[in-house]
Amino acid sequence: MDYASSEAPSARSHGTDMLLPHGARGVKVVIVGGFGVGKTTMVGSVSEIPPLTTEETMTQAGVGIDHNPGAEGKNTTTVAMDFGRISINRELILYLFGTPGQERFWFLWNGIFEGALGAVVLVDTRRVEVCFEVITRLEDRRVPFVVAVNTFPEAPEYRLEELRSALALSDTVPIVTCDARDRASCRDALLSLMVYLCTLAAQETV
User: Measured between alpha carbons, how far is 123 from 68 in angstroms, rounded to an integer?
Assistant: First the structure.
């Protein structure tokens, strides 16, 4: 899908100045997950500006290197990052950075996570196991995160508490469902992250 021609409002509708409005705060948020879980789709769905994507067609060069069980039909991949923006309100603007999913591009995560306030981990219930390493990396970096289960058609359905147990998540880590194709659903997932970050900040001040 070419998000540059999607129905998302253009930057012009928010003023010609691409810089932050006076008094607004920009926050960096990372959308992370394994290959093919919907990161590029989520950034494109929720962004209020035409998103920057770095998708390239997959070639035979990846045969024997990339391990993509459950996503064999996918023929493009993010090789650097996706970027978008969404205004939560007049005071808060989220800058969204989607990470590459294939493990051979994970070295790029170091730069992408620099300065990030938090992350959304997208999960595909057909391939829950690909999230283990992703979550471990976030925990090692001490990056707060929420888990968003992307509701793919025909994907197995599990109770959220079952997934919490399978992913060995703390009881405090929020886990929600979302549809990466739906703007409102993606917005709600991002709002759950903001609420979680506010909760953590309040706990630190006690």
Answer: 14
